[in-house]
Amino acid sequence: MTSPARRHFERVSAAQAARDAGDAPMQGDEYHFMQAKLFEDYRRLKSVQSIERKVAIKREILPDYAAYVEGVLEAGQGAQDEVLMRVMLWRIDVGDIEGALSIGRYALRHGLEPGDQFQRSTAAILVEEAADQALALEADDATLLEELQEIERLTAGADMHDQIRAKLHKALGNAHRAEGTPQEALTHFRRALELNDRAGVKKDIERLEREVKNADDQANA
């Protein structure tokens, strides 16, 4: 376990490196150290076939990057940063959407790109990966809805495939339904269907339309 003193040093060093880099690609000893660690962790993950085991490994190693991320977000001015972007993705992979959002806000504000190995933009990755995680969860807490709503706001003007945007609307529909706001859920499910007729929301729409109609009928009785 990293000591508080070591974490403080890592955070301050990362902040200084980010400050010195300005909007040029990240440099500095702390960045190169974390880049080397990222490479080793990536190799470790590539050697594992089980998705469940990969997620467990990511949960294990992500705290090692926390101080670095804090420092960069504290002082960064938009330097391209391979470590930061990979941590954002790994946080989504383990279900830490809020943790990913802390990086996503910064990355979208400064126009950071995810790297050549990805075929999607930062906005598309944030939308699709977070939506996939949300759709796989059985969570019904307000936090998930708030996170998805923020992602929708942050990426509203970003260009991406309609199928990706449809996933977000489907996830928002599920979250609204879990929160007991069926009309809002219906709006998002309908939008998902407009964007992708194979979004898998037709039965949801039919069910909610009946629920909303019955509720209106009872209110007017």
TrEMBL record:
GO terms for molecular function: DNA binding; endonuclease activity. Pfam families: Phage_term_smal (PF05944). SMART domains: TPR. TPR repeats lie at residues 166-199. Residues 191-218 form a coiled coil. Keywords: Coiled coil, TPR repeat. This is Phage small terminase subunit. The lineage of its organism: Bacteria, Pseudomonadati, Pseudomonadota, Gammaproteobacteria, Oceanospirillales.
